[in-house]
Write a structure and sequence with these properties.
Layout: H1 10-17, H2 21-29, E1 36-37, E2 43-44, H3 48-61, H4 66-73, H5 84-111, H6 126-129
Antiparallel strand pairs: 1-2
Length: 152
């Protein structure tokens, strides 16, 4: 697959990323890629847009929203191909978010069969884990799975 001489066409980008042309247009509308137009009005993408779109696909698989992804991509330079250090900065921020999610998932896995601090008071054990619905003082929802600790 030979790279076009004057920027990448949307078709070429679709073949390289595995995305449908319509998906690339959607990501363009969302501000995730910013192609230029040639004299004929056709989109022309930078080679680095292959990496940007690949990043979008991976970040979405990890559960990041389009707005979160856009926020990170907006930190990248528009006038040059992002460097390894540019990508490392994004990676560090995403790593922190992923570590927090992993911690929450582990807590969910380990405590799902016990009290989750939801205030239901329907299980016999709630009288032990959450007497008088003390978890409600910490806020709404499953307080103990959200990171609050039962008072001992």
């Amino acid at each position: 697959m030979q790279q076009p001489k004057y920027g990448l066409s949307i078709g070429y980008l679709a073949r390289r990323t595995g995305l449908a042309v319509s998906a690339i247009r959607y990501y363009e509308q969302q501000g995730l890629v910013k192609p230029e137009r040639n004299a004929g009005g056709q989109r022309r993408f930078m080679r680095s847009d292959i990496r940007r779109l690949s990043f979008v696909l991976i970040a979405q698989q990890f559960g990041f929203s389009i707005s979160q992804i856009r926020e990170e991509l907006d930190r990248l330079p528009d006038n040059r191909t992002p460097t390894k250090e540019d990508w490392n900065r994004i990676s560090r921020r995403f790593r922190e978010a992923l570590d927090a999610r992993i911690e929450t998932l582990e807590r969910l896995r380990d405590n799902l069969d016990g009290c989750i601090g939801c205030g239901c008071l329907s299980l016999q054990s709630c009288a032990l884990y959450n007497p008088a619905d003390r978890a409600a003082q910490k806020g709404a929802g499953p307080r103990y799975l959200l990171g609050d600790r039962p008072e001992t």
